[in-house]
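Sequence only, no structure available. Ideas?
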Amino acid sequence: MDIKSTAEKLNREWKGRFAEIRRGIISRLSPQGRIEREKWLLRQQRKEARRALRGRQPTYSVYAIKGSQARIASHLRTRLYLATRGGYRMKRRQHRKPGLIVRNLGCTTEEFIRYISSLFKPGMSWSDRGEWHLDHIRPIASFDLTDPKQVAEACHYTNIRPLWAKENFSRPKPRRAKADILGKCPRTYK
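Reply:
I predicted one. Tokens follow.
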């Protein structure tokens, strides 16, 4: 063996030894050092196993538990919100692309904004958008959102009004009345 390869071999051994000393493993030769090393290796294996599983573990979203009705309702609310403010991607492109919600509104986005503005209560404006909500007069939960006709009816601009957030939160939750409105069994999820 030449000097260079011997030096590299010793450096690798000592690097490993110093790393073990830093981790609190005193010596590989002593019984206590072996026990500490085995514990450390076991912790490392568990950590790696957790990392490997992290990407593959099943995650259950609220929508998967509640069903497709809640998922569709959430998408409708989000799309309506984005339609009124132009959408973050649409603003970047400097043009507005009419999507499903805009088509179901029954009017253009500009007409919808004028319509909502005409229904403003005293003190409401577009600058204080967070203090008031776009409220569905007939709750979304009362529609069968798997039927395209009912989706269009739920999203129609005449079913939407501006309402102060405080008023909106004080209204009874639509899910409580869902069974009465639809004439079906009460929901099984919470």
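The mean pLDDT is 70.
Hope that gets you unstuck.
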